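Box S1 | Example of a co-folding query
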Amino acid sequence: MGLLKKWKERAAYSLCPVRCPYCDRVIEQNDIACRKCKSSFPDMCYKRYACGGHPCAAAFPYDGTYARAVRCLKFHNRADYAKPLAAQIVQAILETLEDKSFDLVTCVPMHKKDKARRGYNQAELLARECAEIMGLPYVETLVKFIRTKPQHKAKFQDRIHNVRGAFCLIDRDLIRDKHVLLIDDIITTGNTLGECAKNLYWGKCRFVSCAVVCTTVGRNMEKNAD
Ligand SMILES: [Zn+2]
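Box S1 (continued) | Returned holo structure for zinc ion
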């Protein structure tokens, strides 16, 4: 790392110290969590399947301090949490996905009006950080052109219809014959990731793997169980 970059990082740290995403304590500049939170991490990551049978790695259950971290990233302007949370996504990928021959990283897109209102898409921040950690290109591949109800507000049986047809592929040349790593913040029913993966397969990609910070249900779910 160049001296100037190092100096800039130190200056930024002293103005705005890095904080643990799970409890908001100040932590070392390049750390991903405080010692206390790290010691209570689950000893195994989670493997789910998005609708359509696409494997999905998840770092944490969606509860307690993990849910807090995702909610802060999503609703309370804590974009600074994206980097440490992405480090946990990469850890989950290493532990749970068999085929790691990814060519590029992409994310579940937000509708442009929703993104403008929030100021950023949290899934994009996570995907960009994952790409950086893994040394892969981040590529915008999908657009969300229908504004849908937030999945957590839709009734369970309505969630498939809520996102169906909401996304479209930007350019099939971006993904043809590629193994795409698709990132989101949470997997609930797996419908959103499944719908995005469907569009990527229409574009003739080779394979879609998914990864998220949190899952709402337990580890090692059976294929298509959601
Ligand atoms: Zn902590």
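Confidence is low (pLDDT under 50) at residues 219-226. Residues 18 and 27 are 6 Å apart (CA to CA).
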